[in-house]
Amino acid sequence: MSTAWVVVFLSLLLGVQPLATDLYLPALPSITAALQAPMAKVQATLSALLLAFGIAQLVWGPVSDRFGRRPVLLLGLAAYTLASVGSALAANVEQLIVWRIVQGAAMGAAVMGARAIVRDLYSPVEGARMMSRGLSGLGIFACLSGPLGGWLTEHLGWRAALGVLAVFGALGLVLVALRFRETLPARNPQALRPREMVRIWARIARHPTF
């Protein structure tokens, strides 16, 4: 893949996170009124998303080491799109929480995949430069998400705001399917063995950054 396409993929994959959170925030009061749910319960839809997002990355990493980045990205973006549609059509807050959990887990696949791509293709120094370019794209999405979410909620309703996430996820899915080439140099057949996964998780837990 060319450098330009890598930057595009990094921006899209990292951008799913601010869209799923910042675009969603202006819709919270409308969701509370429409679903006749307590604000605390509606706020739990965001907490559930972020918790699933964090935990899922611990699993997606070994899965992508075993089967490759491309299958994980395709599965993750497909699940993200489906969960976005489910969220937009949710009939009650309980359904919305479930779909947001699925969306958070799928979001973990996209963000983990972006970081793995950089690790696969570049040295640490060059990888930092590429990641900074991808984060610039993320910054654009983050800046647009709040105002866009507010405008959509005000003029078209909260379901339209959540529907935009489905459009974004579908766009990312199509681009990955058509243009993404596997970046993992060699698959690790041991990656999903419990002992290997525990070893990796322990190394993460011991890392000063964590």
* Radius of gyration (Å): 18 Å
What is the arithmetic mean of pLDDT? 90
Beta-strand percent range: under 5%
CATH fold-level topology: Growth Hormone, Chain: A
Description:
The chain has 210 residues and is mainly alpha-helical. It is 82% helix and 0% strand. The chain contains 8 helices and no strands. The chain has helices spanning 3-22, 28-35, 39-67, 69-88, 93-121, 124-155, 158-179, 194-206. The longest helix has 32 residues, at 124-155. The protein starts with a helix and ends with a helix. This is Bicyclomycin resistance protein.
In short:
With 210 residues, this protein is an all-alpha fold.
Descriptive labels:
210 residues; 8 helices; Bicyclomycin resistance protein; Growth Hormone, Chain: A; mainly alpha; membrane; transport
Question: Topology, please?
Answer:
Elements: H1 3-22, H2 28-35, H3 39-67, H4 69-88, H5 93-121, H6 124-155, H7 158-179, H8 194-206
Helix pairs in contact: 1-5, 1-6, 1-7, 3-4, 3-5, 4-5, 4-7, 5-6, 6-7
Main location: membrane
GO biological process, one term: xenobiotic detoxification by transmembrane export across the plasma membrane
GO molecular function, one term: transmembrane transporter activity
